[in-house]
Amino acid sequence: MATPLDLDQLRTFVAIVDTGSFTRAAEEVFKTQSAVSMQVRRLEERLGTDLFERNGRAVKLTDAGARLLNYARRMLSLSQETLLAFDEETIEGHVRIGLPDDYAERFLPEIMARFVRSNPRVELQIACETTSCLIDDIEKNHLDVALVCPSKTHGWSEIVRTEPLHFVTSAAHSIHEEKVLPLAIGRSDCQWRQQGIDALRRVGREHRVLFTSWSAQIVTSAVLAGLAVSVLPECALRPGMRVLGEADGFPRLPDAQIAVMRGRNSQSPAVAALVDHIRESLQNLPQTPPNTITSRIPETRVIRSQRLRPSVGLAGW
Fold first, then answer.
1. Could you tell me the pLDDT band of residue 154, with boundaries at 50, 70 and 90?
2. Which residues contact 166 (CB under 8 A, 6 or more apart)?
3. Distance from the CA of 18 to the CA of which of 51, 87, 137, 200 falls in 20 to 30 A?
4. Closest Cα to residue 256, out of 307, 300, 291, 297?
5. Which positions ≥6 away from 115 have C-beta within 8 Å?
6. What CATH number does the domain located at 7-85 have?
7. Alpha-carbon 287 to chain mean position
8. Residue 238 · residue 102 · CB < 8 Å
9. Residue 18 and residue 25: Cα distance in Å, rounded?
């Protein structure tokens, strides 16, 4: 076992695991499928064990493969970090990014993990505010990048993710069956609030606003406590919530959009790199948070890069 492991073989191994397919991994590492198979075979010979269970086209790790995966990721990460440490053209500086608190909880870990590994010399300054505050900070040059609900009235933005918007309730309570439906929603200029109320009015469902807050945590707490129904995008669903669909008497809602805004004076390589990582991160996230009870889970759609004048801004989030 004295001969070092081949990093290129490890990179191919990780690509197979991440893509779930030898064919897609070949595209990822720019090799033919036969070359990928050969690399795996040589890696297995080097370690003296099988890494994948062969069962048709399905790709499943053996116990040895699962054990290798953690080591492989660490070795590849350290290799990349070492190269960056000696790269005189490595991006440096700092980037100021802002996003709402519910987006931070769902998206920020993946964005940070991807970006910091590739750009260890860039300092991230992170702010959690409402969409309206973030847009204002972008216009005042207090932020370089903001992840927001798109706004027609505040300049250009790039939509990077589109996903379903839901009426949600507690899975352990029946508050949604009340004759006058109590709501926990954003402030009066919140886009999701208006869309939810408009939909309830169209179907003639009586309702009253019980809680108003820009804080996702407060709205989530009200829902999970069984005090009110809310309107939330799929990314904001939490374990213990239940999606209310047409079978429950609740109308369908328009999709929620997530957009990136960039400051007018924020054109540095570090900012460009962060925006690229945001796109990639949101494309690779799973569709629905785990352990969430839903009555209907539509397909989450990710738009790779669509520039347009988006819809009305959301100040509640």
1. low
2. 231, 232, 233, 234, 237, 243, 244, 253, 294
3. 87
4. 300
5. 122, 124, 273, 274, 277
6. 1.10.10.10
7. 9
8. no
9. 8
C-alpha–C-alpha distance, residues 196 and 258, integer Å: 18
Q: Is the pLDDT of residue 130 over 90?
A: no
Q: Tell which residue, 287, 202, 284, has the closest CA to residue 246.
A: 202
- Local structure of residue 284 (DSSP, 8 states): H
Instruction: Give the percent of the chain with pLDDT over 90.
Output: 41
Looking at this protein, which amino acid is placed at residue 284?
N
Tell me the residue type at 152.
K
User: Which tens digits make up the pLDDT trace of 232-279?
Assistant: 998 889 999 999 999 999 999 999 988 898 887 777 888 888 988 888
CB 297 within 8 A of CB 165: no
- Compute the distance between CA of residue 72 and CA of residue 37 in angstroms, rounded to an integer: 17
Q: Which of 39, 47, 41 is nearest to 9 (CA)?
A: 39
Local structure of 69: helix, strand or coil? helix
pLDDT bracket for residue 2 (50, 70, 90): low
Q: Which CATH class, in words, describes the domain spanning 94-317?
A: alpha beta
Tokens of 268: 């540095």
Strand 207-212 versus strand 181-185 pairing type: parallel
Report residue 282's pLDDT band, with 50, 70 and 90 as the boundaries: confident
Q: Delimit the domains of the chain by residue range.
A: 7-85, 94-317
Residue range 78-105, pLDDT digits in tens: 887 677 666 655 677 889 999 988 788 8
